């Protein structure tokens, strides 16, 4: 028990030493309530590194079907790839970038890939169920396992113990036994430290136990996206279960519509890895180019 108490203290200390998340993330998440903020305004508050990453993604294979030229300025990128896509890139690259400096995150690529996949499926489900902020759904999916990232990066010995122990008692019980906190609880501490909205904090904290109090709709979207991208539920069973939980999909849809949505999700999942790779391999030279200065 003593061991857990010390470990909990050091986890909290570690969380409080994380780099701060760029304020632009909070601005994007608040945009559903502030539609007057536009893409150009957003581009002005991007730091140089983030702007370079947005440009890299705009030039990457992720948008390869739509962009076939060299994009060198942010306004140009915004026009070419669209405002919604830019917001998605901002959320993703800000999140990656914030933790990237802390340690070599390529070593935990499966976790990042899972986060991106969950973000994309969450956004698509949010669209199906008319959730008011697709950005919030995307970001909640992206960040739901942030606690796992922290444990993998900063507590590798305990992570190894958890890997062994979870075979017998399951992941959450193993985390509780070895660390004193589950990855959902660690993630909620990060969300609190980064001053994320209460809704997102709650979604992270309860993405496994489903004990949502404030926003069950977003909670269910993230919970089922998480199960789907892990292959623990198929697409039609997921929609059926959501229907049974009070979230019916649009009545006008037939099975061919559902197949089309499933196909689009599959395509988006393939693109996700390409985007991940392009943001993670940004060269020093690209970071030194100032795309913001080129706009002026
Ligand atoms: Fe999780
Ligand atoms: Fe997950």
Question: Can you offer a commentary on this structure?
Answer:
This protein is an all-alpha fold. The protein is built from 17 helices and no strands. The chain has helices spanning 2-16, 23-29, 39-44, 48-58, 74-81, 83-100, 109-128, 134-143, 146-154, 156-169, 171-179, 183-193, 198-205, 216-229, 235-244, 255-280, 284-288. Helix 9 crosses helix 12. Residues 283-296 have low confidence and may be disordered. The structure holds fe (ii) ion (2 copies).
Q: Features of this protein?
A:
single chain; binds fe (ii) ion; 68% helix; 296 residues
What is the overall pLDDT average?
81
Radius of gyration: 19 Å
Structural class: mainly alpha
Which ligands occur here?
Answer: fe (ii) ion
Task: Please describe the topology of this protein.
Blueprint lengths: L1 H15 L6 H7 L9 H6 L3 H11 L15 H8 L1 H18 L8 H20 L5 H10 L2 H9 L1 H14 L1 H9 L3 H11 L4 H8 L10 H14 L5 H10 L10 H26 L3 H5 L8
Helix pairs in contact: 1-12, 4-5, 4-6, 5-6, 6-8, 7-8, 7-14, 7-16, 9-12, 10-11, 12-13, 13-14
